[in-house]
Structures are given as structure tokens and as C-alpha cells.
Amino acid sequence: MVKNAFHLKETAVALYEDQKVAAMFRPLACATLDAVEITETDVILDVACGTGIVSREIHAKISPTFPIHGVDLNADMIAMARHVTHDRPGAFEWHVADIENLPLPTGQFTKVFCQQGMQYFPNEITALIEIRRVMQAGGQLITTIWGGASDFFIAMSDSVSKHVSPEVGKRFLTPFSYKNADKLTEMLGTAGFGAVTRTILMVDRTIRNPDTSIKNEILGHPAGLQVLDAGETVVQAIVQDIANACAKYQVGENLVVPQRTHMFIATAT
Ligand SMILES: C[S@@+](CC[C@H](N)C(=O)[O-])C[C@H]1O[C@@H](n2cnc3c(N)ncnc32)[C@H](O)[C@@H]1O
After folding, report:
1. What percent of the chain has pLDDT over 90?
2. What is the DSSP string of 163-199?
3. Using one digit for the tens of pLDDT, what is the confidence trace for 176-222?
4. Which run of H or of E encompasses 141?
């Protein structure tokens, strides 16, 4: 069985969708789509699609002629993607599959999106070769990968390290610890892509109702259950530490914390 380095259990998927997608993944999807030209005749694939926020934003923006395909290794993520799109029959096709073995025909897609998935693939070149296989020549791959942790997640990691354990605390930085950004252009070349552009996007993470949603941010992470096991007093101490560390980001009732991401756009040769 393929190991999923970002595996959320069913309950955490609901928190991911309600909290993290609203706070960060949807704004990132919108910022990415602002930077890319897509048309309704594009044939679109969203890999490591999670609950499908990139696909949903594309559908809202251009209503493509062809169904948008989304693939994720986690069946619970795909179940949520199906659930939140059931009112748009025929618009999406969702697949549970590993990036290294896509259940899709060769040479089909003109745009492939991979939002915050690359850092979890066990072998980027194998993943990129498989993505290239399903693309048309001249198609574009658009991938974003966090460029370092924001102060919010540094505070979360520090506090979990103090109250739970350094091992669990470190896990909260995993999504932001991708080491191969400087090698990705070369890896894309090896996998059959060219004309690679690399830019930085800054996107705000907006944490509404911090009293309740900081806890949901913790529990919507794959290591969240280990924090929950430490008990409610510990959870509340961590929430308080994070709120104190991020007080300078208070805007009205919300916390608004900037987050840096790499965006690579590459053309299938
Ligand atoms: C941080 S989430 C991002 C999800 C989505 N793109 C979004 O923006 O909300 C990373 C996703 O990568 C998926 N993933 C991890 N390894 C994978 C693999 N080998 N093949 C396909 N999906 C994978 C996880 O299940 C998870 O849904």
C-alpha cells in the first residue's frame, strides 16, 4: 500500500474542508487562477486534489466544456470532494489513485494543477513523468509549494513541541519544509517539461473566530489527533500560545497571517 505523507482521517477531512480550505487553500486557489490563463475548452486535471478546491474554483470561474478530473490518494478527501459537488452532476470526475499510477488515458489534459501536493510525493520525478504522460504537448502544469512556514505555524509547532513533544511539534512544519524547490526546474526538464517559470505568491491566511478556529487548524492537520490525545487543557494552552504569538496579526476579530508559496508553471514538450 502506498504511504500517504499527508493522510487525514475522516473527521479531520471535515475540519480540513471547513477550516483550512476556507482560511488558506481557497484563497491560494484563487490567487493561482488569477496568474494563469484558462479557457472553457481546456481539459483540466487537479492532482493531489484533496477536497477539490482548485477544481471547484475553476468550475466557478469558467464552467469548462469537459468535466474537470480530480485525483487524490485519500478516499476520505475524494468522498468530501464528491459530497460538496453533488449539486453539479457531470461537472467533475473524482478518482482515488496514487500520483504514480493515474487511472487516466495518455495525452489528454491541457492544464494540470497540483496545489500543495508535490511536497508529499515520495519521488517527484516519477510523479512528474506520470503527470506528463496524461498531458497533451503544449499543455501546462501549474504547481504551488509552500515557501517556508508562516509565523502562525511556527508558533503552533513551538507550542506543540513544548506541551506535547518535539517530534509531534516538528510534524506541523512538514508541509512547509520542502527541500527541493531549487531542483524542481531541473526535475521538470527530466520529466518532459520546458519553459519553466518560478514565481513567489504571497497569500493571506485568514483565521476567523480565532477562539474556535485555532483549535480546528490544529485538529485539521494529520498530527492533530496526537495533540487531542494530550487532553483539552493542553489543547487550550497551545491555542493561547498561538493567539499570543500572533497578536500582531489581529485585524478586527480575525487573524490575518501572510503565507509565502512557490508557483511553478511548466509546459509539456
Ligand atoms: C495539503 S493537501 C492539498 C490538497 C488540495 N490540493 C488543496 O489544495 O486543498 C495534500 C494532498 O496530497 C494528497 N496526496 C499525498 N500523497 C499523494 C499521492 N502519492 N498521490 C495522490 N495524492 C497524494 C493527500 O491525500 C492530500 O489530500
Report:
1. 93
2. HT-HHHHHHTTGGG----GGGHHHHHHHTTEEEEEEE
3. 999 999 999 999 999 999 999 999 999 999 999 998 899 999 988 98
4. strand 135-146
Q: Which residues contact 44 (CB under 8 A, 6 or more apart)?
A: 38, 55, 58, 64, 66, 68, 69, 109, 110, 111, 112, 113
Q: Which of 2, 28, 73 to mutate to test the pocket of ligand 1 (most atoms within 8 A of CB)?
A: 73
34 C-alpha to ligand 1 centroid (Å): 22
How many angstroms does the Cα of residue 209 sit away from the middle of ligand 1?
27
Report how far residue 199's alpha carbon sits from residue 212's, in angstroms, rounded to the nearest whole number: 34
pLDDT in tens, 61-120: 999 999 999 999 999 999 999 999 999 999 999 999 999 999 999 999 999 999 999 999
Which CATH fold topology does 10-149+174-204+257-268 show? Rossmann fold (3.40.50)
- Chain-centroid distance of CA 86 in Å reads 21
Q: Alpha-carbon distance 255 to 245, whole Å?
A: 11
Position 10 scores a pLDDT of 78
At 183 the pLDDT is 98
Evaluate if pTM is beyond 0.70.
Answer: yes
| pLDDT for 67 | 98
Grid coordinates standing for 256?
490575518
Distance 13 CA to ligand 1 centre (A): 12
Model confidence over 139-155: pLDDT tens digits? 999 999 999 999 999 99
Pocket of ligand 1 (CB under 6 A): 2, 4-6, 21, 25, 48-51, 53-54, 72-74, 77, 98-99, 115-117, 120-121
